[in-house]
Amino acid sequence: MQPPLAFPPKAAAGDNVAVLSPSFAAPGLAPEVHEHAMKRLAEVTGLVPVEYPTTRRLGASARDRAADLNAAFADPGIRAVLATTGGEDQITVVPHLDPEIVRADPKPFLGYSDNTNLLSWLAEYTGLFPNAHLVIQPGAGHFPWLDDADRFVATTAGVLGMNHQRIRGQDGAPKCSGSGHPGQVSRDMPE
After folding, report:
1. Residue 31's pLDDT is what?
2. Which of 93, 113, 144, 173 qualifies as a cystine partner to 86, CB 3.0-4.6 A?
3. Are strands 16-20 and 78-83 parallel, antiparallel or unpaired?
4. What is the pLDDT of residues 170-188, one digit of tens each?
5. How many CB atoms lie within 10 A of CB 176?
6. 9-25 pLDDT per residue, tens
7. What number of other Cβ atoms are within 10 A of residue 46's Cβ?
8. Burial of 78 (0-12, 13-18, 19+ CB in 10 A)
């Protein structure tokens, strides 16, 4: 039997958000990219990223990665959970998760790449995300926060229900923080 649906409150500027690596610890392989992403997340959304022990630990066990997820959902000071990357190895984490912890304090969960195993578990065992949907960032490759950082931040802020104020240069034009040309912004980028 499916649990009753849960509608977690959205995160707001000043809230702490857990930053986890439930699959591959990409931040351990590319710390500069990760640090840039955390800086942008804080600057643009006002959220406060909180890393957990396995966020950057390459080769962390499934049990340790699950402990981080359980701790993030159990912490009342954390208002959303962000996965640094997805991947098929998340399936090894699922057996170690505690649905009662998530049900006690439901929070938005966002992730990059394939977080299907966790999203499916959250939906089935905790009642979270009854209206979940896939968001595709046009023009992005495997690193959307680099390919079009402004669009990535705007999309993330939108999913979190936050007002996104675009970063602008001294000339008033939008800044491009990704690999595109300075000032290049897609016409369909959210305001």
Report:
1. 94
2. 113
3. parallel
4. 554 444 443 333 333 333 3
5. 18
6. 788 899 999 999 999 99
7. 16
8. buried
Sheet of 48-51, strands arranged across:
48-51, 16-20, 78-83, 109-111
**From CA 22, how far away is CA 81, in angstroms rounded?**
11
Query: Which tokens go with 77?
Result: 């000071």
CA atoms within 13 A on the CB side of 160: 27
Handedness of CA 124, 118, 146, 173 (dihedral sign): positive
- DSSP H stretches of helix in the chain: 26-29, 31-45, 62-74, 99-104, 116-126, 144-147, 149-159
Residue carrying structure tokens 């955390």: 38
User: Side chain identity at 77, as an amino acid letter?
Assistant: G
Query: Facing residues of 80 across strands?
Result: 17
Task: List all residues 6 or more positions away from 150 whose beta carbon is below 8 Å from its beta carbon.
Answer: 166, 167, 174, 175, 176, 177, 178, 185, 189
> Over 50: is that where the pLDDT of 59 sits?
yes
